[in-house]
């Protein structure tokens, strides 16, 4: 009996079928954020990151152009079992001399992404970029400057059309996620006025005709940002209520809550009221720091909520982190694999039994089984998942990433 067969028997004794857990995991699509590869710089020339988010570190080898970013994403995909999507930000337009400002972006500025995705069998999601731009220095969709506000409404409309183009070209729906960095550093004179303008801007932008079977639009809330410590226009209440009233997808980023709040605890409530939900998986360390996702408690709890509530086909699952202090390919692979590990861990739970123990008030036994599951031979099942797709284990993958660093990344100076 090999290690996998032995591990499989141990899980069977707990009432769990490891083969079907692996099969389920192979079907789950993750929307891989393109922005880990170049510290959210993008290709539209604005470069420096703004909007209260930060990529800290100066590790060598970041991608400087589309060719390098595509090559890096290829490297990442060579370590990730399954068929996934790429999450593109509007500042990653590939102009080839045909520059357009954000309000005038057209599908053709993203043809390179479509060609890339099609040739690899990937889906595409999209995000308007309301940061790293001269017109985003104060506020965007909530701006009191009518010209600025209109500029960003036009940007949003342009992005809806680009998401529709993505969906048509790759033959699967595209999520368009709206997140604005608007807020105030210090005590507001009015909390209502910016929110009124944000609401009006969304109403105007969403009046654009689009194919709802192709484009899903989500709204991502936030709790604070650097320079926006006192007030955030797109708060949780604003975004969830706007999404509910307008049939949008509510999207939660697990870095966007107070440190004692957990997204894992919020998912079941959203599932009761929204057809689809969106998640940005990240790792906030003391603040919304966007560290690489790890196979940690909260990532596992989030995965459990999706699995045991049968919500894997109702969630747009995306990664969102940007670490510039370590090898960026390794950051990507470690983070995406951590999401897959968490999902596998969740798929290896005897969920019916756990629920029954809770309903019957058998809490001692529930605690004992939870503890047993933590030391069950999870690693063997994970290795089998990688082996099935001929993927190297973590340290072997890192060896290959180090070679790529020597041959490619360190030559980018
Ligand atoms: C920022 C949000 C947002 C961004 C990306 C780059 O706090 O999480 O999702 O990280 O749009
Ligand atoms: Zn996010």
| Uncertain regions spanning at least 5 consecutive residues | none
- Helices and strands, in N-to-C order? HHEHEHEHEEHEEHEHEHEHHHHH
Beta strands, count: 10
Task: Identify the CATH homologous superfamily.
Answer: Divalent-metal-dependent TIM barrel enzymes
CATH class: Alpha Beta
Structural class: alpha/beta
Give the integer mean of the pLDDT values: 98
The helix content is 40-55%
Biggest sheet: strands, sense, closure?
5 strands, parallel
Q: Describe the global form.
A: globular
Ligand list: L-rhamnitol, zinc ion
The gyration radius over C-alpha positions equals 22 Å
Task: Give the topology, please.
Elements: H1 3-13, H2 18-27, E1 31-33, H3 66-77, E2 85-89, H4 111-120, E3 123-127, H5 146-170, E4 174-178, E5 183-184, H6 192-206, E6 215-220, E7 231-232, H7 236-245, E8 249-253, H8 267-273, E9 277-281, H9 297-308, E10 315-319, H10 328-347, H11 351-359, H12 363-375, H13 378-388, H14 394-407
Parallel strand pairs: 1-2, 2-3, 4-6, 6-8, 8-9, 9-10
Antiparallel strand pairs: 5-7
The structure holds L-rhamnitol and zinc ion.
Residues 220, 253, 280, 320 line the site of zinc ion.
Overview of the molecule:
The protein has helices spanning 3-13, 18-27, 66-77, 111-120, 146-170, 192-206, 236-245, 267-273, 297-308, 328-347, 351-359, 363-375, 378-388, 394-407; strands at 31-33, 85-89, 123-127, 174-178, 183-184, 215-220, 231-232, 249-253, 277-281, 315-319. It is of the alpha/beta class and 413 residues long. The strands form 3 sheets. The protein has a 5-stranded parallel sheet with strand order 4-6-8-9-10. Strands 1-2-3 form a 3-stranded parallel sheet. Strand 2 (85-89), helix 4 and strand 3 (123-127) form a beta-alpha-beta unit. Helix 1 (3-13) packs across helix 13, helix 2 crosses helix 10 (328-347) and helix 9 packs across helix 10 (328-347). It is globular and about 70 Å long. The protein starts with a helix and ends in a 6-residue tail after the last helix. L-rhamnitol (RNT) binds next to loops.
């Amino acid at each position: 009996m090999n290690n996998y067969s032995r591990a499989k028997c141990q899980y069977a004794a707990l009432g769990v079928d490891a083969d079907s857990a692996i099969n389920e995991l192979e079907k789950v699509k993750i929307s891989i954020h393109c922005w880990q590869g170049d510290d959210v710089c993008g290709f539209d020339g604005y470069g420096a990151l703004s909007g209260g988010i930060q990529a800290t570190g100066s590790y060598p080898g970041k991608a400087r152009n589309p060719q390098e970013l595509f090559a890096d994403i290829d490297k990442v995909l060579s370590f990730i079992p399954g068929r996934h999507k790429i999450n593109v930000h509007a500042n990653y337009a590939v102009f080839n001399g045909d520059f357009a400002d954000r309000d005038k972006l057209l599908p053709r500025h993203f043809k390179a992404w479509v060609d890339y995705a099609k040739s690899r069998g990937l889906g595409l999601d999209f995000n308007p970029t309301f940061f790293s731009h001269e017109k985003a220095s104060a506020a965007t969709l909530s701006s009191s400057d009518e010209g600025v506000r209109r500029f960003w409404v036009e940007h949003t409309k342009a992005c809806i059309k680009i998401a529709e183009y993505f969906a048509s070209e790759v033959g699967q729906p595209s999520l368009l996620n709206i997140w604005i960095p608007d807020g105030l550093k210090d005590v507001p004179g009015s909390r209502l006025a910016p929110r009124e303008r944000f609401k009006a801007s969304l109403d105007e932008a969403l009046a654009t005709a689009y194919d709802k079977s192709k484009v899903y639009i989500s709204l991502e809330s936030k709790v604070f940002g650097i320079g926006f410590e006192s007030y955030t226009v797109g708060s949780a209440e604003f975004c969830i209520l706007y999404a509910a009233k307008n049939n949008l997808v509510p999207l939660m980023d697990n870095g966007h809550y107070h440190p004692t709040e957990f997204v894992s605890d919020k998912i079941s409530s959203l599932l009761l009221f929204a057809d689809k939900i969106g998640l940005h998986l990240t790792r906030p360390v003391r603040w919304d720091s966007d560290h690489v996702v790890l196979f940690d408690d909260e990532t596992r709890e989030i995965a459990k909520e999706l699995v045991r509530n049968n919500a894997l086909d109702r969630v747009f699952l995306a990664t969102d982190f940007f670490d510039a202090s370590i090898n960026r390919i390794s950051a990507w692979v470690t983070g995406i694999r951590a999401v897959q590990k968490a999902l596998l861990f969740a798929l290896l739970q005897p969920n019916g039994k756990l629920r029954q123990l809770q309903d019957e008030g058998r809490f001692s036994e529930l605690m004992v089984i939870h503890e047993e599951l933590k030391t069950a031979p999870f690693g063997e099942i994970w290795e089998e998942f990688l082996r099935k797709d001929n993927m190297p284990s973590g340290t072997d993958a890192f060896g290959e990433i180090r070679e790529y660093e020597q041959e490619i990344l360190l030559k980018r100076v």
